[in-house]
Amino acid sequence: MTDDLLYQVAITIIPGVGGITARKLISYCGGAEGVFKEKKNQLQKIPGIGTAIADSISNTDALKRAEKELAFINKHGIRAISFTEKDYPLRLKQCEDSPVVLFVKGDVDLNSCKVVSIVGTRNITKYGSQKCMEIIEGLKEHKALVVSGLAYGVDACAHKAALEQGLNTVAVLGHGLDRIYPAPHVSLAKKILKQGGLITDFISGTTPDRENFPKRNRIIAGMCDAVLVIEAAITGGALITANIANSYNRDVFALPGRTSDAFSMGCNKLIKTHKANLMESVADLEYVMNWKPEGEAKRTVKPLFVNLSREEEQLVDVLKRYPEAGIDCVAHNAGLSTGRASAILLNLEFKDVVTQLPGKQFKLNEAYL
Fold this sequence. Notes:
369 residues, Rossmann fold, Arc Repressor Mutant, subunit A, nine-stranded mixed sheet, three-stranded antiparallel sheet, 12 strands
């Protein structure tokens, strides 16, 4: 435990200070410790801080509470990961309102190569449960980390299916690590700790209040590559998570359902309003994300002899400089017409030299890089 961590935890305890404000304070004061040593009149000069927050920093017992929290996490084998550390989820770090400190219980890599968050209704149907299990079974060959929120319904189904498939899974909590909510999921949480972890940005003693869960949802949305909405009503937490994910430029997928089904209406709305990709199976995720199963690239063997024409070699050279390029980019840089470049790229696809991606983007297959 470092002194800097103590001050970083203390900043998160100050009333009115979230991730964005905390980073601003740390930046202006030259570090977390500097925030508490800066004079109040200087703090007030920092853009967006003002008198109220400056007073809170000066008058709060945040440092004493942070000391107590560090003693708690040390006693219970919990890691406190600062946003400055390499173990902090890199995807989440890209989000401007991400937590300054995460509390993590369990031995899990939060920077796995592929991370999928799964959310949905607490009132999961038989259809939703079956599709959730099918999708996670499909994620097995990708060795994806499955993230959810430990709630009833879709969350619990996602965690259980991940455990059954041998995938690591992480539960993001809307309260401190001194409790499990809902209480019937204590046994599930214990299983997750053996094959993943529990994470939160709330200190111990924080109760699972209603307003905490939208805050929790930003972590679920931010630490993944893609958010999968299995079933959702027209309003609710799952749609909040999907909207946050869209604001973070994450790919969102939704399982379609019958228009008369209450818990498919949210998914159908996301698809209809172009806020989510339609997902019938994991193949849809693989297509949009351009994911290949783990080890597939290693099995690819470059042919010993591939006869390429001069124009084909030109296009290969272009794609070496532009790893993923559209037809116009390829044609322009090769000095060819769009029609001619398109015909040559088709031949290169037949020769298994290039792959066409969604949006008419092209890339060289790994064996030819």
